[in-house]
Amino acid sequence: MRKKDIQIILLFLPIVTFLIACQGKKKSNLRSEDTEAKKEMQGIWVDDETESPLMRIKGDTIYYADSQTEPVYFKVIGDTLYTFGSDTATYKIEKRMMYTLCLHSVMGEQLKLHKSQDPEDIQAFTQKNSPLPVYKTQVKKDSVVVYKDKRYHAYTYINPSRMKVYCSSVSEDGFQVDNVYYDNIMHICVYDGAKLIYGSDIKKQMFQSLVPLEFLEKAVLSDMNFRRVGKDGFCYEATLQQPESYISSLIYLTISFEGKLSMKVVSSN
Q1: 180 and 95 in a common domain
Q2: Residue 94 sits in a domain of what CATH number?
Q3: Phi and psi, residue 31, nearest 5°
Q4: Could you tell me if 47 and 161 lie in one domain?
Q5: How far apart are CA 218 and CA 166, in angstroms?
Q6: 184 and 261: one domain?
Q7: Could you tell me if 239 and 222 are in contact, meaning their C-beta atoms sit under 8 angstroms apart?
Q8: Distance CA 149, CA 241 (A)
Q9: What HEC string does the chain produce?
Q10: What is the spatial order of strands in the sheet that 150-170 belongs to?
């Protein structure tokens, strides 16, 4: 390369670098968060049609009037509202003013909102976010069975836990939300008189080799029932259920007379 060519390249190199930097900055600005929009959207938003409080925006979080729905982090980028729950959802903003908001739901339907001026609307969001457990208190089931002239006691204890199970769904207003439920811990035990044959806590994680992981993560161990006693031992039936759906799986737990536990899936739908 000739000396003159090198000089020309060196002369234009800062200009090219500057243009590339400006282009990169322009693209970055297009994708940056609109913090001013977030500030203007603070407050309680009411559905134009029903006049019911729908959501409350405070800071960088959206709270829904349904106390079973988890609050969700959000951003406004360009003309789109992004929410970041278990999944990321986007809502096209058609119109946004200080007291007016018009956007499209995840199903594409138009949703018109206005900012509340009624102090009483805060009451829709003052309920403690308390996911509904399948059982609110411990439930005890006691079965007395006879096999070959011997009496046995088979117990089941259903204990609500603080382990959360999240289920994503679309609300009636077209928002993608995360509803949350409490899982349960089962305790089963079998006695021959005063002698303990078997006793243990049963959690849904014990079934991970029997059912698909995707199903298990969204399922609640919703029930446990003693079914029968026979030559193989004592049979319990566990129910794994996905909340808000008909998807479930039934699993038989068999306890032998020697206290050994075996499991198998008997039904999935």
Answers
A1: no
A2: 2.40.128.280
A3: -105, 0
A4: no
A5: 6
A6: yes
A7: yes
A8: 37
A9: CCHHHHHHHHHHHHHHHHHHHHHHHHHHHHCCCCHHHHHHCCEEEEECCCCCEEEEEECCEEEECCCCECCEEEEEECCEEEEECCCEEEEEEEEECCCEEEEECCCCCEEEEEECCCHHHHHHHCCCCCCCECCCCCEEEEEEEEECCEEEEEEEEEEEEEEEEEEEEECCCCCEEEEEEEEEEEEEEEEECCEEEEEEEECHHHHCCCCCHHHHHCCEEEEEEEEEEECCEEEEEEEEECCCCCCEEEEEEEECCCCCEEEEEEEEC
A10: 139-147, 150-170, 176-192, 195-202
pLDDT tens digit string along 97-109? 999 999 998 888 8
Same-domain check for residues 114 and 92: yes
Work out how many domains the chain is built from and give that number.
Answer: 2
- Match 């003052």 to its residue by tokens: 126
Beta bridge partners of 139: 158
pLDDT digits (tens, 9 = 90+) for 72-104: 899 999 999 999 987 889 999 999 999 999 999
Q: Can you read off the two tokens belonging to residue 195?
A: 């002698």
CA-nearest of 116, 84, 83, 30 to 92 is 83
Range(s) of the domain holding residue 104: 35-125
Backbone phi, psi, residue 82, to 5°: -110, 135
pTM > 0.85: yes or no = no
